[in-house]
Amino acid sequence: MKLFYSPASPFVRKVVLVLHETGQTEDVELLQVSTTVTEQDAALAASNPLAKIPALLRDSGPTLYDSRVICEFLDHRAGGALYKGGWDMKVLEATADGIMDAGVSMAYEKRLRPVEKQWDDWLEGQRRKILGAVSAVEARWMPSLTGPVNIGQLAMAAALGYIDFRHPDAGWRAGNPQLTDWFAAYESRPAMQATRPDIL
């Protein structure tokens, strides 16, 4: 199998974390592409009509895309341990993906628009989504971030890692001491170290 990827993408990192934590890294070749909403990679677009990463080109069957689809496929392939929390676990993953969405939207606004056309209210609105989501995790989801590795942990780690990478001044740690401590410890996992955006 082959995975279309970019090292800076938090959605890609989530998938690669799943590969590491389920022992499937040797089964998937990483194909680096450069793609944005304005400049699509042709090979990626031929496999995924949305021209978005990650996209998993399987040995048989159509390409899988959307990180949640790919992660659940890889989890099933490895024996199905990451989603044992059921719907709660999927909601936690969706919350982390929302943090990623907001962070990527902010990055596009800053990197692709000329400075004079950047919309400060838009950026602040995305930042509020991030802060609201991490506050919800602090209040509701911390128990799901403990125990055996699960998709909620991997998604949240990828999301927070991306915010630190692209938006270090977002201020998500303020008022969230449990999540701050959890992430500081989780970053030391070998899978997290192997998938840092600067080395993936």
TrEMBL record:
It comes from the Bacteria. GO terms for cellular component: cytoplasm. Signal peptide: none annotated. Residues 1-82 form the GST N-terminal domain. InterPro entries: Glutathione-S-Trfase_C_sf (IPR036282), Glutathione_S-Trfase_N (IPR004045), GST_Omega/HSP26 (IPR050983), Thioredoxin-like_sf (IPR036249). This is Putative GST-like protein YibF.
